[in-house]
Amino acid sequence: MSIEARPPPPQFAARLQRALGGRAGWSGFVVQILFVAALVWIFYEIVANARTNLENQHITAGFGFLKNTAGFDVSQSLVPYSGSDTYTRVFLVGLLNTLLVSLIGIFFATLIGFLVALGRLSPNWLLSRISGGYVELVRNLPLLFQILFWYLAVLAALPGPRQSISLFSSFFLSNRGLIIPKPIGNPAFEPFVMAVAVAIAAAFLLWRYARRQLFQSGKLITIWPYVLGLLVGLPLVTALVFGAPVRFEFPELKGFNFAGGSRVIPEFVALTLALSTYTAAFIAEIVRAGILSVHKGQMEAGASLGLARGSVLRLIVIPQALRVILPPLTNQYLNLTKNSSLAVAIGYPDLVSVFAGTTLSQTGQAIEIIGITMGVYLLISLVTSAVMSFYGWRLGRSLEG
Amino acid sequence: MKRVSLVFTLALAAGLSTNAATAQTLKTVKDRGLLSCGVSQGLPGFSSPDDKGNWTGIDVDVCRAVATAIFDDPTKVKFVPLSAKDRFTALQSGEIDVLSRNTTWTLSRDTSLGANFTGVTYYDGQGFLVKKSLKVNSALELNSASVCVQTGTTTEQNLADYFKGNNMKYEVIAFGTADETVKAYESGRCDVFTSDVSQLYAERLKLSNPADHAVLPEVISKEPLGPMVRHGDDQWFDLVKWTLFAMVDAEELGVTQKNVGEMAKSDKPELKRAFGTDGNLGEQLGLTKDWFSRIVKAVGNYGESFDRNVGSGSKLGIARGLNQLWSKGGIQYAPPIR
């Protein structure tokens, strides 16, 4: 008597069925198809309906307006811009301003957030109370109010340009912003940049080598004097050979304002300050929760190995805490980016202000412009999430490995 | 503000009230029992709520006149305060029936917004407000100045044109609402506040020390301000247009809020036509025969409305200037009622 081998189950079909229909099998698949079809139909109806209505009312539609001349000026622009550029350029200017304030905001929010969280967990009574007070105060006040506070109460209280607070007669702080000498590239600028790049690359390789030595043979090599020598020495040598890489254009009081120099406008400062301090309060709580989620034994183990408190945090606690911290931290980054659209209240030329504001009212093409703007915020958010997910995935891999 | 425009945009996209908008505005308004009128968020002289919450101003009078012509009751108006950038979307989406919000008549607005201007309530021009302590006497001395401006206005573009045309540099800071703009100007963020001259006078009153600020003599643009209605409903367009004309014609005919009762009995042919004792001109507009006397009784003639809101009888004290009747040296002119 022989036992017939049971034929293997149809792997591919089963897997497909599970993937498409979930637990409900093929009938679930049909439901999903119907659902997607309904969504597509609703979306189509909205677009078609809007199109007919616009046509009936003789409202100009389409994206042709993007090629028209904008005819208005903007106070801060990362790319060259003048009133005779097109609305497409305005869009770019607004987008870059939004990205600038978001990136710098995210950087400072993370920095302040981590510091406050560590402060709150610190055994020092005063430090932990101050950190706690900061969190409670800042996260419980509305953000718009804080932006207006920084703009109208703090920065507007600075003296006018003629009475600016000056440092070495080259840095000026007034209610028109911070004016600093502007570096202008000399012919020697390119070799200088190359030297810096080479120095950074060499320092990185050195660091990798030292790390490998440490892991493979346990040898601790002191590399910082070499790194310092590379980073300072190499650019210095090129500067000596080719001459000074930059010269400075100093600001000068002319008429109502300063002429020359670079300027950081107060709207940007107020918005960055408000966004980063506000978001930092939330990040601080997230980081604190993350650190507390790491078992106390990990810290004690680190201490018993003879590591200092800082090293225990850096090498043992924070890498484990990051797994808990990362998803809510991503949320905060997204919030900060979206909150930057409050900029219009203080006249910072972000995307919502110059594109969904001025451009919209000049062209009257609300549907197209609001559509583009929403699409852009969605895209920024998705990219941020993707980057954070990638970081989380790498982190997870390195912790397991 | 962003949320408001989003709501209007979505309403527009979904076409909630757009079909009603295309033809039968008068019927919709009558059925509703209220005129929905878009006004500013508070511009003294043009449209602003007083301490009891009643809206007053020359733009408000236009809406009240339209409401009176339809309902014989100047209070049957719902005022919808709108920011500069939300105003057109609110009109397009059918949220309001008339936009009477110090809006400049330009070619592109007349053609691309799906809306039409019905006339000119106020002939304005753009000017500059500066602190007297700066000792500036002309706009041509404003090279390198920082300028505060409200976003979503024709002002922003005129400003760019003017400084470019005169080879002057400047820094522009644009805010969402008039209040934010004035606050920034007052705090010293800008040297100059630019807007329509009438608005400069109105906003100057709100400053803590109005006497420290002066309006420069240059007027750098033409800003004819007028009411707007949606494209495609000619009956409604005519009605709003002739309501304003009725106010101007009343002044020319010498009909005032006080003497309207006596004048109605006059047997002058042009008065008889206006008051509907001869012919049915009011009915041709879709109104009643006594539309003209209703309007004058409720808000007075154009000159009375002007004096009460922005002219000699108001805090603003603006001279009639261009807004004087054509027969008295101005350019306010209405076609005849006949």
Keyword list:
heterodimer, A: 401 residues, alpha+beta, MetI-like fold, two-stranded antiparallel sheet, 67% helix, B: 338 residues, D-Maltodextrin-Binding Protein, domain 2, three-stranded parallel β-sheet, 15 helices, 16% strand
Concise description?
The complex is a heterodimer of chains A (401) and B (338). Chain A is α+β, with helices and mostly antiparallel strands and 401 residues long.
What does the model show?
In chain A, α6 (189-217) runs antiparallel to α7 (224-242), α9 (296-304) crosses α10 and α10 (309-339) runs antiparallel to α12. In chain A, the strands form 3 sheets. Chain A has a 4-stranded antiparallel beta sheet with strand order 1-2-3-8. A two-stranded antiparallel sheet of chain A has the order 4-5. A two-stranded antiparallel ribbon of chain A has the order 6-7. Chain A is of the alpha+beta class and 401 residues long. Chain A contains 12 helices and 8 strands. Chain A has helices at 11-21, 26-56, 87-121, 125-139, 143-155, 189-217, 224-242, 266-292, 296-304, 309-339, 351-363, 366-400; strands at 165-167, 171-174, 177-180, 182-185, 246-249, 252-254, 257-259, 262-264. Chain A has a domain at 54-153 and 275-391: MetI-like fold, CATH 1.10.3720. Chain B has 2 domains: 2-123 and 225-328, Periplasmic binding protein-like II (D-Maltodextrin-Binding Protein, domain 2); 126-221, D-Maltodextrin-Binding Protein, domain 2 (3-Layer(aba) Sandwich), CATH 3.40.190. Chain B has 15 helices and 14 strands. In chain B, strands 10-9-11-8-12 form a 5-stranded mixed beta sheet, with helices on both faces. A 3-stranded parallel beta sheet of chain B has the order 4-1-5. The model of chain B is unreliable at 16-21 (pLDDT under 50). Chain B has 338 residues and is of the alpha/beta class. The radius of gyration of chain B is 20 Å and the shape is globular.
